[in-house]
Amino acid sequence: MKKIAIYTLALALCGGALYTAVAMEKAKDEAAQAAAEPKEPVVCFESRKGATEVTQRDIKPGWPNVKCSPTTGAALWYGDPFDGTVPMGKMPGLENLPEGHALVKPRSEKLAILPMCGTACHNGVGPSFSPPTLPKDKKPTAIPTMESLVPDLKDLQHGRGRIWCLDCHHTTKRDKLVDHFGDPISFDQPQLLCGKCHGDKLRDWRDGIHGKRIGEFASNGKKRWFTCTECHNPHNVQDGERNRGFVQLQPEPPPQLPNGMKDASHELVHPVAH
Amino acid sequence: MGYALNIRKCIGCRRCVHACVAENNQSRGTRPGEKIEWIQVLRMERGMFETEKLDHGYPEGLGIQVGGNAYTPAGQVLEGQFHYNPEAVPEKDATYMPIACMQCEKPPCVKVCPVRTTYREGDGPVVIDYNWCIGCRMCMGACPYWARRINVTTPVLPKAEMNPVTHYLGNRPRMRGVVEKCHWCLQRTRQGRYPACVEVCPVGARKFGNLLDPESEVSKILERKNVFRLKAELNTFPKFFYFYD
Amino acid sequence: MQQLIRFATDYVGYVLKGGAKFYAWMGSLAVLIACMLYVFYLQNTEGLIVTGMTSQIHDGLYFANLVFLVGVAAGAVTIVFPAYVYHHEGMHKVSVLGEMLAITAVIMVMVFVFAHMGRPDRLWHMIPPWGIYSFSAMLGWDVLVLNGYLILNFICGFYYLWCKYTGNPINKKWFIPLVYVAIVWALSIHTVTAFLISTMPSRPMWHHSMMPIRFICTAFAAGPALIILIFMIIRKNTRFWIDDSAIKLLSTIVTWCLGIAIFLTLSEVVVELYARTEHANGLYYLMFGLHGLTGLVPWFWSAVVLMIGAFILFLTPAVRNDVKRLPIPCAMAFAGIWIEKGMGLIVPGFIPTPIGEVTEYHPTFVEWLMMLGIWAFGFFILTILLKGAIGILLGDIKFGGQAATAK
After folding, report:
1. Chain A residues within 8 A (CB-CB) of chain C?
2. Which residue numbers delimit the 4Fe-4S ferredoxin-type domain (chain B) (predicted)?
3. Closest residue of A to B88, CA-based?
4. Does B234 touch chain C (CB under 8 A)?
């Protein structure tokens, strides 16, 4: 009996040692692999793909600013809701909020060609600007250069043909939007522009019912406000035939099938009974 | 605390579901039962009525007693697909309805708990003391919203994926054999922060706030919008409201 | 005190001795019990993942058996009631056997509770002063009434046996009132079990006030059906003779309780399926399947065939009056009710879920083994209890007498 016990013990020890050795080697391999692969920065989108990208980084060790979905590349979790924000600026109706409690992510940083608008083309010089001329009215005119830059302009959906560029864009300051008085509005404050027509939406947005805010939930808390253009594409607000204000997205993966279920095809069958 | 969800806005992208998992340290294994999600998104068909169907039904060929389009699902029916996975959402012919714990004012789950391990907190959420739960699952049977999940095994939670900010009644890692559910991210909301699902909803359909503050977004919704409670006929008095523009 | 020790040693000594058949029976049961212990160990190391239960369908075979066995325990009252209230001669002789069956069934229920729990190690959380007892919870009440019933039956049964053993007269001053309490209590255990599931509006399949009476009816059919089977076995294997009159009366009770149970089931089918609201989805799944999933359909229809078949056989004079043929409908009724009340009632309550998800329940081998093991455990206890009781009733064990052996 004792003999067997000793043999077993020896065998177990040998096995254990062998396993440890193998395991160590494996761990080494994995470490080497990880080192060999250069870490690409993870970029995910917040609301609308292609318009609100954010790069993942560690705020403190093991605490990223944002977690991204491996399936769809969407932002899934905020470590710091105020990462990369600036004060919203003056907004009528929100004067009662404490200083610095209304934050936004500047939209102008996301608009790639914005810095060039006023310098490269609409700079007041060039063949069509001597002598400097301006559009005499706001009547629609096809502008092939702009259409090639922003494809959505070809068949502008916004307003169904009742709206044209200069209803929203400033006539002379092309890196600005325009209000009812002809004064410029920053691209970082599109709500001031959109609210010109969509007053009910602006009211709901101001009260937090429409649109999205993150951060502290108290009504006077510190919040990052999502501005209109972070979620809506102003040139294609109706997303074509679907006629909805929000674009289509790839959904996150479905839930796990419960034990014993092979697929979810039964969900497509409707129960029929009299 | 109160919650409101705009079902007209929801596009069914399930981002809330996965934000919840990232925040609340749910089990995320691969074996059946090892993956737990607290939010379910139900896809319901908009329905379509057809002339050809007019004579279908019962009796066959006449459709007098049961009309031809009677079996066309339309509207909010709590009947549809949970496992939908199209290339893009929202689909034209569907609406979506996310469902999670309603944090009832009169929670049936609390009443049936034999050890009082689940109870209503003063500020709203119905919570569970995971260390006291005996895993009898009576609460799961009593919940009319299927909000509760059982940890059928020791939860799978990789170290790197764990959220280190936890709450005893909230998202601390659970153990085998206990029941868990949504608690409105107690570890965040008690610190004043929005729940994780509110923060990731790309369409801003999810709203959270203080029901006692007339300026909060939830109070404004109750004041301004058409609101309903799911299964209000059961007198559970959810503090989770559905609304539409 | 010395009497008590002698009682215990005599009892154990008598029970342990038996023929080859006895040892084979107990041995095979022991094997199943060992399997049960192993899967119980698995469940408490791996977790409920080794079972087929999910978050959607979180009560399965264990809960079904639990509900059924509470019925069997309550069913024992069908012996005690005629014996003590109607002073039925034949029943009075065997009433203690009914109490032994009740004890066994309650113990089995408790083992099924252990099997069902996610954390059986924490069950003490229910027991004050260490734990918290909740008066609002039906499960709390169920535990209370079950334990009370166990204690009542233990006292009544063993006090009776003790008196037979010592030859002392029974102190009727407290014994008879206690028996009456036990009779009412028997109704309470099954009523509370019915309330356990019928008080949940979230599960429309269970949420109707017919549930307690249906439970009682099925219990008073399944319980005595099992008792008749056991009596037949006792008559065959021991010198203890059970009167035909007792068996006759029991079979009458089975017949009419079964008849009422069938009637109630049919009523439910008509009420639910005539309007065919969303609330009938569970029953519809059970009877015909839902969304093309038909896992429980054969179960339901086999239960219907078994129950109605048994009822017709019970009504047939050739079977009814022939004690030899009686076990056939008894076994059929027992099996039919086991399906109808267990798998056929508990599982479809979860299909669909309250928010409309349709899934199916696939009990695993572990669950079947656990179930078999617990039934084996029950028969193990029952054999011991019945053997000892019969020994005393026969006078084989008597204070001051020679320790005798049963055949």
Report:
1. 258-261, 266-267, 269-271, 273-274
2. 1-30, 124-153
3. A250
4. yes
Task: Say yes or no for a CB contact (<8 Å) between C276 and A266.
Answer: no
Of A158 and B112, the one with more pLDDT: B112
Residues 226-265 of A with CB under 8 A from B: 226, 231, 241-242, 244, 246, 248-260, 264
How many helices and strands (H and E) does chain B possess? 6, 10
Q: Scanning every residue of chain C, which has its alpha carbon at the shortest distance from the alpha carbon of B134?
A: C119
Per-residue pLDDT tens digits for C365-378: 999 999 999 999 99
Per the document, the length of chain A is 274
Prediction pTM value? 0.89
Q: How far apart are CA A202 and CA C21, in angstroms?
A: 87
pLDDT of residue C257: 96
Range of the domain at B20: 2-50+64-244
In a domain, B57, yes or no: no
- Domain range spanning residue C259? 11-394
* Range 198-217 of A in CB contact (< 8 A) with B: 204, 207-217
Q: Which of C306, C368, C289, C380 is nearest to C341 (CA)?
A: C306
Whether A61 contacts chain B with CB within 8 A:
no
Residue in A260, A269, A271 closest to C362 by CB = A260
pLDDT tier at A273, thresholds 50, 70, 90:
low
The ranges assigned to domains in chain A are: 41-80, 81-121+131-242
Q: Please state the domain count of chain C.
A: 1
The CATH number of residue B114's host domain is 3.30.70.20
Which 88-117 residues of chain C touch chain B by CB within 8 A? Answer: 116-117
Q: Do A251 and B82 count as a contact with CB atoms less than 8 A apart?
A: no
In angstroms, the CA B24 to CA B171 distance is 5
Q: Which region holds residue B177: left if phi is over 0, alpha if psi is between -120 and 50, else beta?
A: left
Please give the residue of chain C at the shortest CA–CA distance from B234. Answer: C201
Q: Quick check: C192 and C142 in contact, CB under 8 A?
A: yes
ipTM: 0.92
Cis status of the peptide bond prior to A184, with omega within 30 of 0: no
Q: What pLDDT shows up at residue A247?
A: 85
Instruction: Give me the pLDDT at residue A274, please.
Output: 54
Q: Is C407 helix (H, G, I), strand (E, B) or coil?
A: coil
Chunked mean pLDDT (size 10), chain C, 407 residues: 87 89 95 96 94 95 95 93 91 92 96 95 93 93 95 94 90 93 94 95 94 95 95 91 91 95 95 90 93 93 96 93 91 96 92 93 96 97 94 86 48
In this structure, is residue B59 part of a structural domain?
no
The yes-or-no verdict on residue A108 having pLDDT over 60 is: yes
Q: Is residue C284 in some structural domain?
A: yes
- Considering CB atoms only, which of A77, A207, A272 is closest to B23? A77
